Amino acid sequence: MARQVAILIFDEVEVLDFCGPFEVFGVAGARTLPEPPFQVYTVAERPGPVLARNGLSVNPAYTLADCPPPDLLLVPGGRGTRALMHNRAVTGWVAAQAARVELLLSVCTGALVLAQAGLLDGLAATTHFSALEELRAAAPRTTICPDARYVDNGRIILSAGVSAGIDMALYVVSRLLGPDAAAETARYIQYDYWQGK
Hints:
Layout: E1 3-8, H1 15-27, E2 38-44, E3 50-51, E4 57-58, E5 62-63, E6 72-75, H2 81-84, H3 88-98, E7 103-107, H4 110-116, E8 124-125, H5 132-138, E9 143-144, E10 150-152, E11 156-159, H6 164-177, H7 179-188
Parallel strand pairs: 1-2, 1-6, 2-5, 6-7, 7-11, 8-9
Antiparallel strand pairs: 3-4, 10-11
């Protein structure tokens, strides 16, 4: 049975932050396994188009109210996280999902949303290099790893900015399906991914 992968989107979300992992999970195992291992969908606070960075209009598949229960939840970053992190409906939903999902993932400044939801205390985290001080302020009881491409805390995995989300998603594919599945996915999307941490 396919793992359900929900990707939160919101106004001013960074396009590659959510589209890169969407592509990775969407194609992982699709050509080599009898059934796709991941069912990927977008979710937003409300119905209707979301205006991502640079004016890209995206229609979410679900809202917070009708989203199928995810096995993996990914919170991307972008300028919109500064408003989103103070949206109690969203941070409350993220916190509620965090208590039940197999993995909670963030890309870039999605880490700020996780911090505001109270999910990073005692953990290690990273984010976009330009937002490290914001993350320190939002998560004072978190170890910030400024040079990490991604950080695996077990159930919570965070990546640095933008393209680092692709590396993190491939790492998650490797962790869940094995390194051969991650290598095949990277080969298919013609991406030379970073396999360190």
